[in-house]
From TrEMBL:
Top EC class, one word: ligase
Official protein name in the record: Asparagine--tRNA ligase
Keywords: Aminoacyl-tRNA synthetase, ATP-binding, Cytoplasm, Ligase, Nucleotide-binding, Protein biosynthesis
Domain Aminoacyl-transfer RNA synthetases class-II family profile: 133-431
Length: 431
């Protein structure tokens, strides 16, 4: 008898198969029992009919506890009432591992409780679906950049330099030296671009964010492409093409997850249309002021401002050329304006906020060195980075996409903590 995954059920209609999985839930009346089964690929229903299987097996079925691991034997049938479309008519149950008092019951639980049980919460259908989408975004990322000839360069997690700012750093003792957990892989990616032309890093990054918001993690994964000989306009084209590709890949490969999440496909379709609109920081400030926002030129936008701007469009929107004073040291000044830099943030629709931050990079040795000093950083920590401008400097551009921000947006999840298997937050280091 063939052992199959639930997700492949459609190929086995009317066939007797075996499925190894867990009992996620069950309900029964006198003569019929419904087992909600999951096997890691999907969830579906097992039907146990008393008059078909006999008293003994029926009795075993109705006494299965939640999260008992089982080998189920049965016949796959179409199930027109469920979105999934198939079910199994059970003819045999073998228990592999028992389960007593599983803490996450089908009733409602508070967030703290669920987060304390994240190692178990991951088994539930919504969390499972979100992780399937996350997996697809990772797969599509490698595919997109490899197809374009980008080389994957891993950047270090332990660093001696601040990549973005000095306020959100996690400090660690590195033998007798000060070290930090990487805020970004960008500076090392820039070295990679000088060696390989087009590169991308993909790894965990860390920010000691003291804020409790639905958009911030202290540990998150970032995709950071870096491209030699590339200027802002070309970089924006790659960014929008990449984001559109991510959304399209989810539409193409995550049917099951989108059903579970009840994510509207027509909405997602709109996000695959290119180009994405662009608005300058100046224009954004004007628009906000006209609409009674209390913003001055020179401040960074918070989430209400970003959401308002995003709501003017049906696609993600680029806000380009922010004030120099609110952006990191490596961004170059606009050729015609001293007070702004060549950069862009991509703001997701529906209030999900910034999903990409990127810029051109200052390529002039003296200017970059002065920026490092002006930002209060120690030049000697950045000598290696300055070498990239000493030896054959060229313009490079790059950007960072926050994976969990993208997952949260594309899945339509309320809080970013559900978009990573084990979230790290201000007050959360376990499980
Ligand atoms: O805008 P950020 O800080 O840009 C950089 O780190 C650049 N060095 C990237 C580059 O040019 N290579 O961060 C990039 C993205 C943000 O747009 C956001 O999606 C995500 O990283 N991000 C966070 N995601 C979750 N939690 C946080 N605390 C995040 N901070 C940034
Ligand atoms: Mg940013």
């Amino acid at each position: 008898m063939e052992q199959i995954s639930i997700i492949d059920s459609k190929h086995y209609v009317d066939q007797e198969v075996q499925i190894k999985g867990w009992v996620a839930n069950k309900r029964s009346s006198g003569k019929i029992a419904f087992l909600e089964l999951r096997d890691g690929s999907a969830f579906f229903q097992g039907v146990v009919l008393k008059n078909e299987v006999g008293d003994e097996l029926f009795d075993q079925a109705i006494h299965l506890n939640q999260e008992t691991s089982v080998v189920i034997t049965g016949t796959i049938q179409e199930d027109t009432r469920s979105k999934f479309g198939y079910e199994i008519h059970v003819t045999g149950i073998e228990v592999l591992g028992t389960s007593e008092d599983y803490p996450i019951t089908p009733k409602e639980h508070g967030t703290d409780f669920l987060m304390d049980h994240r190692h178990l919460w991951l088994r539930s259908s919504k969390q499972h679906a979100i992780m399937l989408v996350r997996n697809e975004l990772i797969r599509a990322t490698y595919e997109f950049f490899n197809d374009k000839g980008f080389v994957n360069i891993d950047s270090p997690i332990l660093t001696a330099v601040a990549g973005e700012n000095t306020t959100d750093l996690f400090h660690i003792d590195y033998f007798d030296e000060d070290a930090y957990l990487a805020q970004t892989g960008q500076l090392h990616a820039e070295a990679g671009a000088m060696a390989f032309g087009n590169v991308f890093t993909f790894g965990p990054t860390f920010r000691a964010e003291k804020s409790k918001t639905r958009r911030h993690l202290t540990e998150f994964w970032m995709v950071e492409p870096e491209m030699a000989f590339v200027h802002q306009e070309e970089s924006l084209k790659i960014q929008e093409e990449y984001v559109s590709y991510l959304v399209q890949s989810v539409l193409d490969h995550c049917d099951y997850a989108l059903d579970v999440l009840d994510r509207d496909r027509e909405t997602l379709e709109k996000y695959t249309k290119l180009p994405y609109p662009r608005i300058s920081y100046d224009e954004a400030v004007e628009l906000l002021q006209k609409n009674d926002f209390d913003v001055e030129w020179g401040v960074d936008f918070g989430s209400p401002e970003e959401t308002f701007i995003a709501n003017q469009y049906e696609q993600p929107v680029f806000i380009v050329n922010y004030p120099k004073e609110i952006k990191p040291f490596y961004m170059p000044t606009h050729p015609e304006r001293e007070d702004i830099v060549l950069c862009a943030d991509l703001i997701a629709p529906e209030g999900y906020g910034e999903i990409i931050g990127g810029s051109e990079r200052e390529s002039d040795y003296e200017t970059l060195r002065q920026n490092i000093i002006d930002f209060g950083l120690d030049v000697k920590d950045y000598e290696w980075y300055l070498d990239l401008r000493r030896y054959g400097s060229v313009s490079t551009s790059g950007f960072g996409l926050g994976l969990e921000r993208a997952v949260t947006w594309i899945t339509g999840t309320k809080h970013i903590r559900e978009s990573i298997p084990f979230p790290r937050l201000l007050n959360r280091l376990t499980p």
